[in-house]
Amino acid sequence: MLNARYTRLIFVLLLAVPLLTSWGVNSLIVYYLVVILAYVSLLVYGSYFIQSDFFLRSLWKGSKDRKEIAITFDDGPMKEFTSRLLDLLKSEKVPAAFFLIGKNIEGNEAVVKRMMDEGHVIGNHSYSHTYWFSLNKSEAMYNDMKKCDEEIFRATGRKPKFFRPPYGVINPMVKKAIEKGNYDCVGWSIRTYDTNAKSAVQVLQKSLKNLSNGDIILFHDWGKFTIGILSDFIKEVRARGFEIVGVDELLKTKAYY
Ligand SMILES: [Zn+2]
Q1: One domain, residues 196 and 232
Q2: Cα of 68 from ligand 1 centre, angstroms
Q3: Are 80 and 119 in a shared domain?
Q4: Which pLDDT tens digit goes with each residue over 204-214?
Q5: The whole model's pTM is what?
Q6: Are residues 232 and 112 in the same domain?
């Protein structure tokens, strides 16, 4: 798989190619523009697609050999939505993972404790979850992530090992912060786009399309249609013979220190 190191090496080699040619100025300009554009496109692709493993190897799919999948919810806890989700998961007897935003925990400690008590996995999704999180210096990101850990610990007494970057963006600074914190970076293989979907049917279709062994599904606590389609999703997944397991079980790794 193409990663940042190989891409950089190929880029440097491509920059040196004109040394072996006798191209004119115009050809050189076109050549360098194409090479630089291709390089930048690859960097953008690597930053925004967590499954690319471009900057950092993430855990985004379980084994292909077992008919198991895991469901995950980002951006909670939220007063309005999260308790309803927990009620539904409890009645369906389905474990899930919640990647929490640290600043949302204050005032919602009981909901977070309930997640833990009811067997769901809790992961770190940063404290601030700002849109520009990935542009911070790695030290600032690391401190932000630690702050989220502290909030989770305050509510549950456990320190999470799983981290999911805000917006799924990974770059060399995010990689450095994740490595410094010794987190496992947990991604997803199916994105439901439940935060900007136009209808419940759309979310259900996206969540079930190409469902295969080991898939990790990305939902959000605040997805407008998420709670509404969850029962149908679970029913269909079970009808197809899949078992929904905790993301730690799917990945065969521990969720806490
Ligand atoms: Zn998020």
Answers
A1: yes
A2: 24
A3: yes
A4: 999 999 999 99
A5: 0.93
A6: yes
